[in-house]
Design goal:
Number of helices: 10
Radius of gyration: 21 Å
Structural class: mainly alpha
Order of helices and strands: HHHHHHHHEEHH
Largest sheet: 2 strands, antiparallel
CATH superfamily: Mitochondrial carrier domain
CATH topology: Mitochondrial carrier fold
Number of strands: 2
Helix content: 55-70%
Length: 335
């Protein structure tokens, strides 16, 4: 099971391998949903776009850009996913090991797991933000940002090093609690489901580390992952929306210890490159507070949850695949 357990026989390097496997499989499966989610989050409400739904957006992308558009930025997405899942699982495993190796009152267990999840999410957000900035722009205008090095050069030319950390504050504020909620809810639900499924009637012969049947692990991980993904996304979604809108618009630069704030659009469409209609009408923000307040003023409170449905689909799919793959790989390594 995810997190530290005294009877577990896996080494940190084996758990690292499980995290890499989980990230790779998860990204390949969920990439199309991620592309659709980002396009919907960044779309302005205009007479042309106000009636866009998930299906109409998908059809328009298919017609204008072909099926490969659903995997724009996939190479970077794979790097992002592997780095993200590996750092989350590894930091969570290490922090829970550090804390639960001591005698801890059981009533604080869930809260401490939540704090370990926040630490994992904060570390993950810091590591993946530069890749995420390039990846988001590749999803919007593939030709303009090209591959990893071309995209990196263009982001740097537009805003220097700070441009790679656009939306970092929103990312940390979102991902820390999101990962904390995800792991703590998963850590509550998965053991409950496994204990319900596993009834050995006093004749248990399995070793403790692999006490459950693989099909039970898959089922419990899928259900717990789906629920934890839904709860964490709903709780933190407005910050996810703000983060995406910040990543195509603003840079906050810091020089010589003095904070200087320059507001400019580091992503600018080039006239010579044809921008897909699904990427033309974008909402841009200059800072986190402004992004949230303007969204509420122009779109109402529920504007903060635009694109929530596709995000929930993606969050559920991501958590189901990620946790199930991680747990399955750990099961096989123990075998």
């Amino acid at each position: 099971m995810v997190g530290y357990h005294k009877e577990d026989t896996l080494t940190p390097s084996q758990k690292l391998y499980a995290g890499i496997s989980a990230g790779f499989v998860t990204r390949f499966v969920t990439q199309p949903l991620d592309v659709l989610k980002i396009k919907i989050q960044l779309l302005k409400r205009t007479p042309e776009t106000k009636n866009y739904t998930l299906s109409s957006m998908a059809k328009k992308m298919m017609h204008e850009e072909g099926i490969t558009a659903f995997w724009h930025g996939h190479v970077l997405g794979q790097m992002h996913s592997i780095l993200s899942s590996t750092s989350q699982f590894f930091v969570y495993e290490m922090t829970t090991k550090l804390i639960f190796s001591y005698s801890i009152d059981p009533k604080y267990k869930t809260f401490l797991e939540f704090l370990c999840g926040i630490a994992a999410g904060t570390c993950c957000a810091t590591l993946v933000t530069p890749l995420e900035v390039i990846r988001v722009r590749q999803m919007l205008v593939k030709e303009q940002y090209g591959g990893l090095f071309q995209g990196g050069k263009r982001v740097y030319a537009a805003g220097g090093i700070p441009a790679f950390f656009e939306g970092w504050t929103a990312s940390v504020l979102m991902l820390g609690p999101q990962v904390g909620i995800t792991f703590s809810v998963f850590s509550i639900l998965q053991p409950m489901i496994l204990n319900y499924l596993y009834k050995c009637n006093g004749e248990c012969t399995h070793p403790k580390a692999n006490a459950h049947r693989p099909e039970h692990i898959v089922l419990a991980s899928s259900v717990a992952g789906s629920i934890s993904g839904t709860v964490s996304k709903v709780a933190t979604y407005p910050l996810d929306l703000a983060k995406r809108r910040l990543q195509i618009a603003v840079v906050m630069s810091e020089y010589f210890g003095l904070i200087s704030i320059f507001f400019f659009q580091s992503h600018k469409s080039e006239d010579k490159i044809q921008t897909p209609s699904t990427s033309k009408h974008l909402i841009r923000c200059t800072n986190l507070i402004q992004c949230v307040t303007n969204t509420v003023k122009k779109e109402g409170f529920f504007g903060l949850y635009r694109g929530l449905l596709v995000t929930l689909y993606k969050a559920q799919a991501t958590n189901i695949v990620m946790f199930t793959t991680y747990e399955s790989v750990c099961f096989l390594l123990r075998k």
